Amino acid sequence: MKTLLQLYSARNYQPWEGVLAQTAATGFTGVEPFAAVFDHATAFRALADRNALALPAAHVPLKLLEEQPEQAFDVCHTLGVELIVVPWLPEEARPTTRAAADDLGRRLAVLQRRAAASGFRLAYHNHDFEFITLEDGSLLMEVLLGAEPAILWEADIGWLIRAGQDPLAWLDRYSDRVVSVHLKDYVGGESEGGWADLGYGPTDYMPIFSKLTRLPKLDYCVAEHDDPADFNRFVRRWMESFRRLSQAAGLI
Q1: pLDDT at position 252
Q2: Do residues 151 and 176 lie in contact, with contact meaning Cβ atoms separated by under 8 Å?
Q3: How does 202-241 read in b/e, with b if 16+ C-beta sit within 10 Å?
Q4: Do residues 72 and 79 lie in contact, with contact meaning Cβ atoms separated by under 8 Å?
Q5: Edge to edge, what strands does the sheet with 152-156 contain?
Q6: Which residues pair with 182 in a beta bridge?
Q7: 48: Cβ contacts below 8 Å, ≥ 6 apart
Q8: For residues 106 and 114, what is the distance between their CA atoms, to the nearest angstrom?
Q9: Whole-angstrom Cα distance, residue 43 to residue 100?
Q10: Cα–Cα separations (whole angstroms), residue 212 to 55, 182, 208
Q11: Is 132 helix (H, G, I), strand (E, B) or coil?
């Protein structure tokens, strides 16, 4: 199983040279970049190559994909990305009605077709706002994934937990759409944004890892912490927990 670090976790711990060296030394096979490195994509790709780190997936803003798709695709080709992930929506762009949800679903379907024509897969990454109930009783996440069967899902388990959802139920329901998972835990409170390293929070991750072994399209397991107080601690703990849980579940 390919293990990636979501680079957003290290945004406060630059320079990137040190971040990538530590990531490689910890045993990760790659990095999942985000927009902060897009203006220097060639140089960042060279730095990743020197550390033997792949860049197979990237978080690419919806605005960039819709308004400057060729620029977005060029950056992804330069980085070596094959999976483009729509990562986040600003609050003003988040649908709160079924009509707005349907509209976003149609836009994602258009992007999926554009991405496929340029040689990419497209996935959507959840936070917690996708699990609001719309006026017709549906959930935003259901509408978005229902808009186009070819739209894949990067399931953020920590945000599912934070949203009060059952990760096992969602992973089971969309088992053939999940190509990547973000693995972290949620404890609440103000420290580190309420997040906890994988294996160091209240969630029993063993059943989740057992479920991961049965996801037919899962390619990437991604380490993420939205606000780690200690980057080295976070990547070390994540990898230790990932290996322990994976071995117990038969994932690796």
Answers
A1: 74
A2: no
A3: ebebeebbebbeebeebbbbbbbbbebeebeebbbbbbbb
A4: no
A5: 30-32, 2-6, 220-223, 178-183, 152-156, 121-125, 83-86, 57-59
A6: 156, 222
A7: 20, 30, 31, 54, 55, 79
A8: 13
A9: 39
A10: 22, 12, 6
A11: coil
Classify the C-alpha dihedral 225-31-12-92 as positive or negative: negative
| Whole-angstrom distance, CA of residue 44 vs CA of residue 21 | 13
Decide if pLDDT at 29 tops 80: yes
Question: 114 in helix, strand or coil?
Answer: helix
Tell me the mean pLDDT in the region 81-104.
97
Count the Cβ atoms, other than its own, within 10 Å of residue 143.
20
At 236-247, the pLDDT tens digits run 999 999 999 999
Four-CA torsion 63, 67, 69, 74, nearest 10 degrees: -80
Per the listing, tokens 């957003």 go with 8
What does residue 248 show for φ and ψ, rounded to 5 degrees? -65, -35
When pLDDT is averaged across residues 202-228 and rounded to a whole number, the result is 97
How far the first Cα of the chain sits from its last, in Å, is 6
Q: pLDDT tens across 161-206, in order?
A: 999 999 999 999 999 999 999 999 999 999 999 999 999 999 999 9
* Cα–Cα dist 92/78, whole Å: 31
Residue located via tokens 């649908």: 95
